[in-house]
Design brief:
This protein has 224 residues and is an all-alpha fold. The protein is built from ten helices and three strands, in the order H-H-E-H-H-E-E-H-H-H-H-H-H. A three-stranded antiparallel beta sheet has the order 1-3-2. Helix 2 crosses helix 8 and helix 6 packs antiparallel against helix 9.
Length: 224
């Protein structure tokens, strides 16, 4: 019997990452942490600490932070303090409204290209979400939930719109993790099952409604 195939894609990814400029490596790593809620709202960061962790000088650390501040993922105070933003109720409501506008449209555009293999993949990711809930892994929940949606939205072939959505995810990542830590869920969102059912049925109105409900309920719970 043949053994498992070597992890060539993983090795290639590591080589490609190592070839990136230092500021890009730091930027990508910090961006993923913020988006997945691995940094708490209001947590302070220092350029010296970032540089030490990633083994880079202050210059690439500063450039990575500058880009994340421009995206709204980090906040830079007048005194030079860097932190993740603590969202106000008004800001949460604004982000929820953006998701309600953009994500149903992405899902609708993806629907004609949502083949059976894609839906099966999303079903599997939903299973991972359930596993994260059992493990009480809030960051894993955020990461898997984003993967569920991104898997569908990539089929929309609307990169500019998806980039806007990911910026919203980035700004709300720490706050969403805080929400999931509060929730006493035992399984993935019922809206995910409605999304999958609408995809299988080719039901565009049903899909738009299920996505809109899914992407706004959590954020609006925080605003109340």
């Amino acid at each position: 019997m043949a053994g498992p195939e070597p992890a060539i894609p993983v090795a290639r990814d590591r080589v490609a990452e190592a070839a990136l400029p230092a500021h890009e490596r730091v930027y990508r790593a910090l961006r993923a942490r913020v988006m997945h809620g691995l940094i708490a709202p209001g947590a302070a960061l220092t350029l010296r600490g970032i540089g030490a962790e990633f083994g880079v000088s202050m210059t690439p650390a500063r450039e990575a932070v500058r880009r994340l501040v421009a995206e709204g993922a980090l906040k830079l105070s007048a005194s030079g303090r860097v932190s993740t933003p603590e969202l106000t109720a008004e800001r949460i409501e604004e982000l929820a409204a953006l998701r309600a506008l953009l994500e149903p449209e992405l899902a609708s555009r993806a629907l004609p290209r949502a083949h059976a293999a894609l839906i099966d993949r999303m079903q599997a990711i939903n299973g991972v979400i359930d596993e994260m809930i059992v493990k009480s892994d809030a960051s894993g929940y955020v990461r898997s939930n984003q993967e569920f949606h991104r898997t569908l939205y990539l089929r929309a072939q609307a990169p500019a719109m998806l980039a806007l959505v990911e910026t919203v995810w980035l700004q709300s990542g720490p706050t969403m993790r805080m929400l999931y830590e509060r929730l006493q869920r035992r399984q993935a969102s019922e809206n995910h099952r409605k999304i999958l059912a609408a995809l299988r049925a080719g039901d565009d109105p049903g899909l738009r409604l299920a996505v809109r409900m899914d992407v706004t309920q959590g954020l609006r719970m925080l605003a109340t």
